[in-house]
Amino acid sequence: MNIVLLADNRKNELLVNLSIAYSHILERHTMFSLFNASRLIRDATKLNVTGLSTEISGSLDQLASRAMYNEIDAVIYLRDPLLDAYDAPNSLLRACDTNSIPVATNLATAEILVLAIDRGDLDWRDLVR
Which of 109, 90, 86, 88 is nearest to 98 (CA)? Predict the structure, then answer.
C-alpha cells in the first residue's frame, strides 16, 4: 500500500511517535511525506519514507494529483486545529474524498487506520489501482 504521512508543524513529534509505535506495520508499505517529516521519521525509525518538496502547498497538490489517479491508498495527516489555515480548502483531502481514500486527521483515527491496514481491511484498494 502507498501511505502518506503528514503533520502540521506542531504535530510532527506525534507523527514520529506514531511511526515508531507502528514501524513493524509501516515497514511493509511504501510511504511518502514532506522532506522534513520524512527525515525525522527515518532518523527515529529507519523506515524508508520518500520525501517530497518542503513547499507545503506544492507538495499537497502533488499528492492530490496522485490521489486523483488512485496512486495513494491511505493518508495520515495529523492536523492542528489551532492553525488559521485549518478550515482552508485542501486539495489532498478533497481528492481523497472524491476517490474514497481513507484519511486520518488525528492520532485516534491514525491508529485505527494503521491497524485496519495491518488486518487487511483495505486490501480492496489493490483492486482500485
Answer: 90
One DSSP character per residue, 30-89 reads EEEEEHHHHHHHHHHH---EEEE-S-HHHHHHHHHHHHHTT---EEEEE--TTSGGGGS-
Question: Tell me, what DSSP letter sits at residue 89?
Answer: -
**pTM for the whole thing?**
0.92
How many Å apart are CA 78 and CA 90, to the nearest integer?
14
Q: Report the alpha-carbon distance of residue 37 to residue 97 in Å, rounded.
A: 24
CB 102 within 8 A of CB 110: no
Condensed to tens digits (0 to 9), the pLDDT of residues 11-23 reads: 999 999 999 999 9
